[in-house]
Amino acid sequence: MKNPSSKIFFIAGCILLGIVLLIFLISLFWTPYDPSATDPASKLMAPSAAHLFGTDNFGRDTLSRVMDASKYTVFISFAGVAIALALGLVTGIPAGYYGGWTDRGIMLLSNSIMCFPGILLALVAVAVAGPSMYNVVWALGLVFAPTFARVCRIGTMELKQRDYIIHARVMGIRSPRIMALHILPNLTGSLLPATVIGLANMTLFESGMSYLGLGVQPPDASFGKLLADAQSYMTRAPWLVIFPSLMLVIYILGLYFVSEGIRVRSGKGGN
Amino acid sequence: MGRKTGFIISKILELLATLLVVSLLTFVAFSVIPGDTAQVILGPDASQAQLDALRSELGLDKPLIVQYLNWIAGLFTFNLGKSAAFGVPVSDLIAERLPVTIGMSIIALIFVIAVSYPLSVLSARRPGKVLDQVFSVTGHILFAIPPFVLSLISIIAASALFSGFRAGQYFSPDENFPGFIGCLILPSFCIALPKIAMTFKYMRSSIIEQNASEYVKNAKGHGLTDMRILMKHVLPNSNVSAITVISIVLSDILAGSLIVEQVFNLPGMGRLLLSGIARRDFPLLSGMVFYIAFITVLLYFAADVLGSIADPRIRLK
Amino acid sequence: MRHFSKTITAAILLASMAFGFASCTASNASSGKVTVGITQEPGTFDPHTVVAAGDQEIIFNIYEGLMKYDSKGNLNPCLAKEYKINDSADEYTFTIRDKVKFHNGQDLTAADVVYSLQRAAGLLPGSDGTALIASFDKIKTVEVSNDDPNKVVVTLEQPDSELLSYFTVGIIPKDYENSDKSPCGTGPFKFESYSVSQNVTLSANKDYWGNKPQIDKVVFKICADMDAGLLELKSGTIDIFPHLTKDRADQLSPDAYNIMDNASNMVQIFALNNKAAPLDNPKVREAINYAISRDDIINVTMDGAGVALTTAMSPAMGKWYDKSLDGTYKKDLDKAKSLLAEAGYADGFDLKVTVPSSYLVHVNTAVELGSELSAIGIKLKIEQVDWATWLDEVYSKRNYESTVICLTSDYAPYDVLQRYSTDSKDNFINYSNAEVDELLKKIPLTPGEEDKLSLYHQILKIMTEDNASCYIQDPQEIVPVSTKLEGYNVYPMYVQDMSTVKFK
Prior knowledge:
The complex is a heterotrimer.
Chain A: H1 5-29, H2 62-98, H3 100-114, H4 118-129, H5 133-160, H6 163-170, H7 175-211, H8 223-230, H9 239-270
Chain B: H1 2-32, H2 37-42, H3 48-58, H4 64-77, H5 90-125, H6 130-144, H7 147-161, H8 177-211, H9 214-221, H10 226-237, H11 239-264, H12 269-278, H13 282-310, H14 313-316
Helix pairs in contact in B: 1-4, 1-13, 5-6, 5-8, 5-11, 6-8, 7-8, 7-11, 8-11, 11-12, 11-13, 12-13
Chain C: H1 2-25, E1 33-38, H2 53-59, E2 67-69, E3 75-77, E4 80-85, E5 91-96, H3 110-121, E6 139-144, E7 151-156, E8 189-195, E9 199-204, E10 217-222, H4 226-235, H5 246-249, E11 257-263, E12 267-272, H6 282-291, H7 294-302, E13 306-308, H8 333-342, E14 350-356, H9 360-373, E15 379-385, H10 387-396, E16 402-407, H11 413-417, H12 434-442, H13 449-465, E17 470-482, E18 485-486, E19 502-503
Parallel strand pairs in C: 1-10, 14-15, 14-16
Antiparallel strand pairs in C: 2-3, 4-5, 5-7, 6-7, 8-9, 9-10, 11-17, 12-16, 12-17, 13-17, 18-19
Helix pairs in contact in C: 6-8, 7-9, 12-13
């Protein structure tokens, strides 16, 4: 089935993601103001030439805070996905490769973890370990690991049937080597969409945790934390809500579109 | 027939194994976590003797394995012990919250089905055309907005549209049942929105797939009306994904209510969980977390078994 | 067909919404029920073990003591008809009021008073001797007078002329053991029910001995947080909401709510643990005091609704407050920097501030402090903890570097300052000065008001010289009260007195 819209999705997604990543890169070196410097004299000012995105209830520059927040949002989603991916790989590939009781054991564990609502698991973990950005990353990594394990397992089971893997096994190449050198690289196609979606879901989870007070700690803020802080100013200072939510939606939508593009493409390749 | 029974038996075994692991995970997690339930109940000024007395009353002085078995027994008899923070039986606390959570789940599910089905049918009639694209992009955007922002926006919108709307009001079901249902509608809608987007996506591709299949083309050739084909053939045949979707939606709704209840100030399971977390109330948390996971396991099980009855192919995989 | 399904969807949506919202509007506001919004989950209703201010403001309606505060902060006899303190201030005699009934129908007798005071003082047989009310540890005996069965005599181990305000503690029936869950007192309202994270319901005590309450029911509705409360205020489902912030109160329609305010007599403190390096150096504490602008903090956290504090007592305490201390620390960055340099921290240092996450005002204060202190090189790291952890780690174990919190106390100067004696269990900042300890011991032995006044002022001066801690503000108490109601009073302490509230 030919789908011209997948290309459009992919390009649109890349543009949206590009906006956020560009802002992220700039924020590493420069923001118009110090994002945590307060200035009570100019609090809750509407957007102006001096403050393009206005100021918050501390008189902090919203543009600088949004730029700075991209750092935390991007870091949390990427680091969380990295942990989930790593855990998924080391459990999912052996499960699919060895099959049998290894498979059953690992799948039972990962299915059981998936029975707990993810946000609840993450909340309990962070509440107990103490709220901090790193604990959020760990908690999200753990919560999302089973998803990746599943993708790896199914991919591995399919690859195992391929001639070159069977050939390699017959040649007597040790299993860990086969998994690392022959299976892992060939999983990229199915893992990529899952990874991109994972980035989006982590960002959403993180914003929910921020709303419940268990996310990034002040004065630092992610997009989600900015939004959570702005909720009491929705009508009074709408710019505090509009700009962070715009950024958040751009980031997540970008990720969704890119994954949509990749999914349709790799689906075609697979057939 | 024998094959079908065999499938169901293996599913039941899987269910039991999953429940065992889920209960072990819950119990171990809350036993390993630092924090002493007796200390939480008695406060920082308690003497050692008081602490020891309460520990033995709560059975905390027994070996872990005995505690685990007692806890499991408690799960089946709905006797989960006393909440550390509130001093009342955990099961009472949960029972008090159930109406809100169940009410919201049902209403949200109705929203999901009532909105996503017609929309996906509409969308799938002309895939790739304007209407389809509009629905798809809207769905993506609904996905991309955090649930609490969605709730806040809908409160503002509802207040502007309906002069009679009052956010945050709550009636208990015994006092005023219509009022109770009424107060749950907007929050349920907020929980449902992202799920509508998700179900729409699944249903749409499932219908498009069916429409492209040979038997639908044949039926068209025989001059059956679109409506008839849809009702008699396409929708029943996409049941597999529908049942799966509904069970996923239901389990997601439980998680979604965590945040929505906070925004709307509703006394459901979500807020009870949050106060349990804030007060390190492990008896309460372990009981609730297990029951939620338990319901989720059952939903997945139901989806698997019902799915296999609706579509024989699934068993052969 | 397309048209058809669209219509159905729309119809279902509309029907369900219209149905829902219509029934939502059917509220029963005129039945004499008043709803008060609170944001804290009650911990206990036991008048002798209660610590949380949020619990105290509820049980004020249920229990009464021998003495009781009025809305101006004056102390009046209540369950005691009259009282007498002997000249050496080591014997208090109370005459019990007649014809007072407990909520369970029992008559109030001297035996109930003796039981309650003995319980609070840890004198009951079988208790381990620790006073539940710390200041009662100097009580030697509580007995019914030999001359008059209606009189209760309290004798002290050492004289204390400052103990009277503590006799506001609630009186419960003799041998009543269920106070924490099912409180029974003599107050204008009876306890009816408590549902966790939903509400506490009180109903009018028809047999109340004093002026009978003018509403049937009070519901203390527990809101998830201040913003959830604000939502309910806007929709009119809450009549009274204590401790609101000014920026939120400003969003309410003046037709629906009167905004009442008053000094709260609370002391918001940037508590510096005197035993945690480098805060053990008074110069460092002084530098912090000079590096911050209290007005800016008040502007940011309270929208200006607060009174700047430089010392441990709020000006709301009237004459007990030492006016000469006004404006002691005027923001002076150069001075702060040189003080830090003198202390050996010219480049500043890292400082952890542990704040309770449920109190937005304190979290926001910490954020503003962080921004201001960075100017002298102090890098403030904010750590939010839940309330239970805060009480345990910070207040009880004193395992922290700095924190932001509001100190509440009775409207009595001794209650405000007694926490600063070296061995007080409430001295969580670990302040220690032998001279202050001496003065605090001396005050209860001092009979004359003028002499006491100078002793209190002396303590405040010494604490300021020591830079005991960093005091920020007395946040103004802001309470929106429904325009349908009248008679509500804002107390200068944590009290929600519902007995005078009525519908217009």
